[in-house]
Specification:
The chain has about 1500 residues and is mainly alpha-helical. Helix content is about 65%, strand content about 0%. It is built from 61 helices and 6 strands. It is elongated.
């Protein structure tokens, strides 16, 4: 910490955290030494100081990865300090175990350490040991269990999750530490002390099964001893009765004498004492009684039942019967004590309390007045805010209703456009049902609006334990009470043949809850009751089974809300839960009831058969004689009830076959004993026959379902068609679930057998029927005929929506078939149209009236308020799927009809697409556009693409963003976030996206423009999915091998260009994409990627680097892949040739040394480029050649041909690698070594290409270059000097002139004068021709200067000093005349004119970018004027021999210079300087050259030869000077 001198503020004495940690670590190390040396008191004091430090005491804030054990220096320090300090305190506690405060401090420090690293076995053992000593048995058990099961390899802060049989696996494997074994021993001891003998015995048995264990043997013997003691205690219960006399009875108060209230009160008290009693409260009660009484606290406690009565009924005797929901039953044998005195005491206490309250109120009256006034003010404020809130909600609702009207009008505007199509046109309003007037649906719309108003952010429509076995007085009372109630209700017909009223649903639920909780206790009470005979026990068990089966049936049928309100284990919790939780609760309750029912039925069967009651039952045999002993009436009733019970259970288990067999037995028994029952019982022949009739349908349903699973679709059609088809033709369907499902199965069978029209008819009839049922249901439950059902009670509404959802799934699947237009009817069925219209209007109601959607209308009106977003529950509403599917189905039908009646691109199609787009905006704002598996998004994308893909491009991008999460947008477009669940974009899904932009992309790339914004994003997105060629395609493999063989073949020259083009014929075939099942994206994606790379490289040609080479190689791969798929593509071949040419140029421009090392590789690139160019020219039509000329194809081909033939490549590309064998005249086969062809043929090929380029309209910057290169090729071909100079003069004429300084003019002008002086020096040009050409060039230059002065308003610096330049030229010309005195006058005039022109070019080159005119002037000084010193002086302008510079020559690469020529010029200039230095005996220059050339292999071609020549010249000069 620092403090400034001028401020005078002292630095903070508080060190940084890191410094404090270092200090604490040092203190800990010293303390640890004291601890190890046995100085415990001093170590304890030091540890205590460390523990009290702020950094150690306070827990650090959790970091990002909070589940992993932190291993920072501070965390390690805290862990070790707490652990060691606790170990010292533990030793003290072992010596003084009565010091509870010390023990708690030890436990607290161990817990603080274990919180840092819960994977330490040792700490868990110590925690368990200390907790056990402190009598914290439950916590000790937790510590021992954690210490045994914890995994030291998982360094996490979460406790280990114990898996089933994990203890067995750990013990048997032996992979545990000694400390884990000690934890296991401690766990067994604690379990014994707790009394959990079952768990203790399980651990002991596991260990004793593997090895001998002394502690386990002792625990096992103790548990056996305690078991015998408890049995003996039960036998001698009379001796211990006196010990319970001091226990107070349990008082239970009843409002009235009612069985339901009695059972509910006893069950509540049972839960309080046995199930829900807190540990601390239980320990507090245990302190009031003796140890022996504590063991029997819950055993046989007396129950004091108090029945409240009115004053006038105080003396009324207790009735002998109690009322159970209008059913009179005998009172059970439960002792009831008089409670008048107690009631009087309670009244007196209540009066005293009221008196005290009155006095207190008088004293605080003033304060009450003030508080009342304050409460009134607060209530007024709250009511004002409430009124404002209501007003805002109403305003928002009205705004949404206006938007709803606008959307309905937009739908109507579409139908108005279809007035000429009767199958589509709907009168205004469009949602009017043709078969009914609008008034008939008025009640339905009011009902549906009411259903929507019930929705909110926390509610949506639902379209699709270990028990305590301790015995107690409460337990005994409950068991006896339940036994008495069931016993008195065990028969359904009494001896007088009169039926008894059944219990209410509420009381049955209470009974079944009590039976479930008591379970084994109730079973023991029933079976051990000596007052019940064997038959009575069986009948009681039978009645219990009937209770549970009735509860099970009702649970399946009633709505989830009601199910969730009555938990079978505990119905005390009534908090509001989500629909998912309620549904899960219902499923769990149903499963529990099934298990309970099966348990009691199995118990009943075991009791029956164990009691040898086979004589009691007999199986009815129709053929048995009448002399058989008839079954008694009670026996018949029992058997009927038993078989009916088994049938119901089978139905609940969806086992139709088994249920049918049980009811058949019941029917036969009823038929045989019809006279004995006479319709006096609930189980009668009519009810059983009705069940059998329904089960017959169910049996057919099960049979067909099995056949459907086995894919026997024809059999399903054969079985169901006679049953279902008549009902479809008559438009009558029953509302049974089985009939609807069988119709669905028939439709599925039709679909699988390609009978799509029949399947469509089945599904459409079902859809219309279900919509009619829904409308009728809504009208009935409007509140007039039937009351409104609140929320989850409306099971019929949910069931109808669920079935409609399923049917629409199948309808849409049929519509999505490839050839659905071939079988789908042209005209939409009127019933289907009406039903869809109703469903669409329901969806509009839902969109604009949902209470959780209404606030969206104000999202952007108040910027300061955060926008409202629908809740997760609202977005998961099942009606979202139905709404989406309804619009998709309607859209399919409308587009199908429009396609049949008129052109698909009509105005109606566009209006419908616009309507769907606006629907997407509405759904997206509500974040539900991705419902129903995003089917609407896919359909909308296809619709917009077919309608007008360019107009709807932004909306298509929006669909792709919602579907796949890809952000595609042009510069002015805004893509909204609809919070959909995105899926991964695959190849199939990307095809429409690629087709959407491919034309624009190709057009833009052909214009040599890079892709931007949305086009670039689309191509990048699609490219990631189509990186490689398709595999396992023989045609692709064949094309690949053919193209590779063609590109690698030797390059041959022929007598004509046509012959060379014919060599490019290859047997490759274009790929049939549809037949080969290959995506059409492959047709262009490789070309697009390659072309994009080529355009990128256009700006990166200088300087060359490795990245450019990598991109070029990738571009070659892309174009090669494109040609493998499209071998007839002209542009692809030309682009491939350009890429190979560019690779060769990059290698040539890399370095001089690279040219020599990789000359063969460069030759291969040039060869492949030539092959690709020839293939492209062969395939090109005349029109295509015109486009290719614009793309510089011919000019580039000519440049490459010139580079192939000239230095430094020198025809390397034409070198033959494959040796041919030929037959000689004598018949012997010999190897033919083909020599390299003459370079003249290659130069002629280049001239032909330049000539072809000039035939077409090419850019101006290419025209002069073509003339320029034709002149150079003519010179290389040994054409006459006059012809060469004329070509160069044309290039000079075509070059643009800007004050004589433009690079385009300098290059052809210099070459023109350079070739002129060479030809004139070699006497290949006559003086008159030279004078004529000089005159023409001078006139051209003067004309260009005059035109420039006239056209330009700005005077360039280069033209402002023409007078000075003329003066310098005159002076320089006088000097030249003196030096050319030895020349003939005509020759001197020509040479001097050329030299002066070169001198003017040098003066105009202010940036020193040109170097060739300096070399030519030096050459003329040496060869023409015989002045070696001047020549050397002029040439030295290009060289730099400074020590610190790496390069010894300073020349630039001009804009137009063929690849590799730069190093050629360097070598040429270096050799000429050696000659000049040797001629002038300049040893110093030669010395510098030797040093520089030796270190410049990257600049000089054939550097060794140049170095050798420089050395030899240096030695000769030295010898000469010596």
């Amino acid at each position: 910490n620092w403090s400034t001198l001028n401020k005078g503020v002292t630095a903070s004495t508080k060190d940084a955290v890191e410094i404090q940690v270092e200090q604490l670590l040092e203190t800990y190390q010293n303390t640890l030494k004291y601890h190890q040396q046995g100085q415990l008191e001093l170590a304890k004091q030091k540890y205590k100081e460390l523990v009290s430090h702020t950094l150690v005491r306070e827990e650090p804030k959790p970091k990002q990865n909070a589940d992993v054990v932190e291993e920072t220096p501070l965390a390690t320090l805290r862990f070790l300090v707490f652990k060691n300090y606790a170990s010292i305190l533990e030793d003290e506690f072992e010596r003084d175990p009565d010091n509870i405060a010390l023990g708690k401090e030890v436990l607290n420090n161990f817990l603080r350490a274990i919180k840092i690293d819960p994977t330490d076995y040792t700490l868990w053992f110590h925690i368990g040991h200390i907790s056990h000593t402190l009598k914290k048995l439950r916590f000790a058990r937790l510590a021992y269990e954690t210490g045994f099961y914890v995994n030291n390899n998982e360094r996490t802060l979460k406790l280990h999750i114990v898996q089933p049989d994990e203890a067995v696996q750990i013990i048997k494997s032996g992979n545990f530490t000694p400390m884990q074994w000690k934890c296991l021993e401690g766990l067994c001891i604690v379990l014994y002390d707790i009394g959990d003998y079952r768990s203790c015995k399980s651990y002991v048995d596991i260990i004793m099964g593997l090895t001998n264990w002394d502690i386990g043997s002792q625990l096992r013997s103790k548990m056996e001893k305690n078991k015998n003691t408890s049995l003996q205690y039960e036998v001698n219960s009379d001796e211990s009765t006196h010990q319970l006399t001091n226990i107070k009875p349990i008082a239970i108060t009843l409002e009235k004498s009612n069985w339901s209230i009695l059972v509910e009160s006893l069950l509540k008290e049972y839960r309080r004492l046995v199930v829900d009693i807190p540990t601390e409260e239980q320990e507090g009660k245990m302190e009031l009684i003796t140890d022996h009484q504590a063991d029997t606290f819950f055993v046989n406690r007396p129950i004091n039942i108090i029945i409240e009565r009115e004053e006038e009924e105080v003396q009324t005797p207790i009735p002998q019967t109690m009322e159970i929901d209008s059913v009179l039953m005998p009172l059970p044998p439960v002792s009831v004590y008089p409670t008048e005195s107690e009631k009087q005491k309670d009244n007196e206490a209540e009066n005293e309390g009221n008196t005290e309250n009155n006095s207190g109120n008088e004293c605080s009256s003033e304060n009450d007045e003030e508080s009342e006034a304050e409460e009134k003010r607060l209530s007024l404020r709250a009511s004002k805010r409430q009124l404002e809130k209501i007003a805002n909600e109403e305003t928002s609702r009205l705004k949404m209703l206006e938007e709803e009207k606008e959307f309905i009008n937009k739908v109507q505007s579409f139908y108005d456009k279809t007035e000429s199509i009767s199958a589509l046109y709907r009168k205004k309003p469009w949602y009017t049902v043709a078969d009914n007037n609008d008034g008939s649906l008025h009640l339905f719309w009011e009902w549906f609006d009411h259903k929507i108003s019930e929705l909110d952010s926390g509610y949506c429509w639902d379209i699709d334990t270990s028990l305590n076995n301790n015995n107690s007085g409460i337990t005994d009372s409950l068991c006896k009470l339940i036994s008495v109630i069931v016993y008195n209700d065990k028969v359904i017909i009494n001896s007088e043949q009169q039926t008894i009223s059944t219990m209410s649903n509420k009381f049955i639920e209470l009974m079944t809850d009590t039976i479930t909780i008591l379970e084994l206790n109730l079973v023991e009470s029933i079976l051990s009751n000596s007052e019940l005979s064997e038959n009575d026990k069986i009948m009681v068990l039978l009645r219990v089974c009937e209770y549970i089966i009735d509860r099970l049936i009702r649970n399946i049928m009633m709505p989830p809300k009601e199910t969730g309100a009555h938990s079978i284990a505990n119905n005390s919790s009534k908090r509001r839960v989500s629909m998912t939780t309620v549904k899960t609760s219902k499923i769990n309750t149903t499963e529990t009831l099934m298990e309970q029912c099966q348990y009691w039925i199995d118990l009943l069967e075991r009791i029956v058969f164990s009691s040898s009651l086979n004589s009691f039952f007999f199986e009815f045999r129709p053929g048995e004689s009448n002399s058989s002993k008839p079954m008694s009436f009670d026996h018949c009733i029992f058997q009927l009830r038993y078989w009916s019970l088994k049938g119901k259970l089978a139905q609940c288990d969806n086992d139709i076959g088994r249920a049918y067999s049980w009811y058949v037995k019941t029917e036969k028994l009823l038929e045989s004993s019809a006279s004995r029952f006479e319709e006096k019982i609930t189980i009668n022949i009519k009810s059983i026959q009705a069940k059998l009739s329904q089960l017959q349908v169910g049996k057919l349903f099960v049979t067909c379902k099995q056949k459907l699973i086995l894919e026997k679709y024809e059999d399903v059609i054969e079985d169901l068609e006679p049953v279902i088809k008549p009902k479809l033709s008559s438009k009558e369907l029953t509302c049974s679930n089985e009939m609807i499902q069988m119709t669905n199965m028939l439709a599925r069978a039709y679909t699988k057998t390609n009978k799509s029209l029949e399947a469509w008819n089945c599904y459409s009839h079902m859809f219309c029927y279900l919509m009619k049922q829904l409308v009728d249901y809504g009208r009935k439950h409007h509140g007039r005929e039937l009351p409104y059902l609140s929320k989850n009670e409306d099971v019929g509404f949910f069931k109808s929506l669920s079935l409609i959802n399923s049917i629409m799934d199948n309808l849409i699947s049929l519509m999505q078939q490839d050839k659905s237009e071939t079988w789908l009817p042209i005209d939409i069925n009127i019933d289907v149209a009406n039903s869809l219209s109703i469903l669409l209007r329901m969806s509009i109601y839902y969109i604009f009236r949902h209470p959780d959607f209404v606030p969206l209308v104000n999202n952007f009106s108040t910027p300061d308020t955060p926008p409202h977003t629908p809740s997760k529950i609202t977005k998961s509403n099942g009606f979202n799927d139905i709404m989406i599917k309804a619009w998709v189905l309607q859209s399919y039908l409308i587009q199908h009809t429009l396609h049949k009646y008129e052109e698909p691109n009509s105005s109606a199609t566009g209006i419908w697409a616009e309507l769907l787009k606006e629907l997407h905006d509405e759904l997206g704002e509500r974040e539900v556009c991705g419902a129903a598996k995003r089917i609407f998004l896919s359909h909308l994308m296809n619709t917009l693409t077919k309608s007008d893909d360019m107009h709807f491009r932004r909306d298509i991008y929006q669909c792709y963003h919602c579907l796949y999460g890809v952000h595609l947008a042009a510069e002015s477009d805004i893509i909204e976030e609809h919070h959909c669940i995105h899926s991964d974009l695959d190849q199939k899904a990307s095809e429409p996206l690629f087709e959407l932009v491919v034309d624009s992309v190709v057009k833009k790339l052909e214009q040599r423009s890079l892709l931007k914004t949305d086009l670039k994003d689309v191509i990048d997105t699609v490219s990631d999915l189509f990186e490689e060629l398709p595999t396992n395609n023989p045609l692709i493999e064949s094309n690949k091998s053919i193209i590779e063989a063609y590109l690698n073949s030797d390059l041959e020259l022929h007598s004509s260009i046509d012959s060379m083009l014919r060599t490019s014929i290859i047997p490759a075939m274009s790929l049939p994409y549809k037949k080969a099942k290959i995506s059409k994206v492959y047709c262009k994606i490789f070309w697009i990627r390659g072309k994009t790379l080529r355009l990128h490289l256009k700006n990166k040609l200088r300087p060359y680097n490795e990245r450019v080479m990598v991109e070029l190689e990738k571009a070659v791969e892309e174009f090669t892949s494109h040609l493998i798929l499209n071998p007839e593509d002209v542009d692809g071949w030309c682009e491939l040739g350009a890429c190979f040419q560019l690779r060769a140029e990059v290698e040539l421009d890399w370095s001089a040394n690279n040219i020599e090392v990789h000359k063969d590789v460069i030759g291969e690139y040039q060869k492949k480029s030539c092959h690709a160019y020839l293939r492209g020219l062969y395939l090109a039509s005349p029109r295509a050649k015109k486009e290719l000329a614009k793309d510089e194809l011919f000019a580039n081909f000519g440049n490459m041909a010139y580079t192939m033939a000239s230095s430094p490549m020198n025809m390397e590309a034409f070198r033959v690698h494959n040796v041919k064998r030929i037959l000689r005249e004598d018949g012997k086969a010999v190897e033919s070594h083909n020599l390299l062809p003459s370079s003249r043929f290659v130069y002629k090929l280049a001239i032909f290409m330049y000539n072809q380029a000039l035939r077409y309209k090419i850019p101006d910057n290419l025209e002069w270059r073509c003339y320029y290169m034709m002149g150079k090729c003519s010179a290389k071909s040994d054409r006459p000097a006059r012809e060469v100079l004329e070509w160069l003069f044309k290039a000079t004429c075509k070059a643009d002139s800007k004050s004589g300084k433009n690079e385009h003019e300098t290059e052809p002008t210099y070459t023109f004068y350079s070739y002129m002086v060479k030809y004139y020096y070699r006497h290949e040009l006559l003086p008159k021709d030279a004078d004529e050409l000089l005159t023409l060039e001078s006139a051209l230059r003067n004309n260009q200067s005059n035109e420039t002065e006239l056209d330009q308003d700005v005077i360039f610096l280069g033209s402002s000093n023409d007078q000075s330049l003329a003066e310098k030229s005159v002076a320089f010309l006088e000097e030249l005349r003196r030096q050319s005195g030895h020349l003939p006058p005509d020759n001197a005039r020509v040479y001097n004119s050329i030299f002066v022109r070169l001198f003017e070019m040098q003066i105009n080159d202010s940036k020193n970018t040109q170097h060739r005119h300096i070399y030519r002037m030096s050459w003329m000084y040496y060869y023409i004027y015989n002045n070696a010193e001047m020549a050397k002086s002029e040439l030295m302008k290009l060289f730099n021999f400074k020590v610190l510079t790496k390069s010894f020559i300073n020349i630039w690469k001009p804009g137009f210079e063929l690849a590799g020529r730069h190093y050629k010029y360097i070598s040429k200039y270096t050799l000429f300087l050696i000659d000049l230095a040797e001629a002038t005996n300049d040893a110093q220059t030669l010395k510098y050259l030797c040093r520089k050339v030796r270190r410049a292999p990257a600049l000089v071609l054939d550097d060794k030869q140049v170095y050798k020549k420089a050395c030899l010249a240096y030695f000769e000069v030295k010898l000469f000077c010596a």
